[in-house]
Amino acid sequence: MTPEIDRPAHLVEYETMLLGRHLHLSAPPTREGGRTMERSAYILLSRIRVEGPMSIGQLSDAFGLDPSTLNRQTSAVLRAGLVERIPDPDGGMARKFRITAEGERRLDQERGALVRRMEEVMSDWDPEDIATFAACLKRFNTGIERVNGRPWPRPALSEPDPAAR
Sorted alphabetically, which Gene3D superfamilies does this protein's record hold (predicted)? Predict the structure, then answer.
């Protein structure tokens, strides 16, 4: 039996559930048939890229995860050569994880494939609709971050080139 969807929040919950499923299943396959990196590695590398080197404690606070979970995740990306351990650039005691050139390359590769897939999905959308959708997603995500008390840093967007107009 399907519960009635009688409030807008029910619709949002259902559609975000489907979005998570679709994003996972529609990830473009590699030659070997799988994704180029695990979802947790993709998110971890994305955070380190935007924030800079981070310790296990900082990652634990940022993600709201137990340090043991992050130890497993960072061990996997460390073994894969996607991050390296460095002394704290600020002189602290804890060692930090910094994304490597290979991590940057693989993150760019994965992000590029995901963006191309999204462009394919939205190929018949008006650019204004895509911008509105992106703005609504950002507003939704920042609302979650506000409620959870864990803001997620966002990369600075480059300004459009006036000569390109």
Answer: Winged helix-like DNA-binding domain superfamily/Winged helix DNA-binding domain
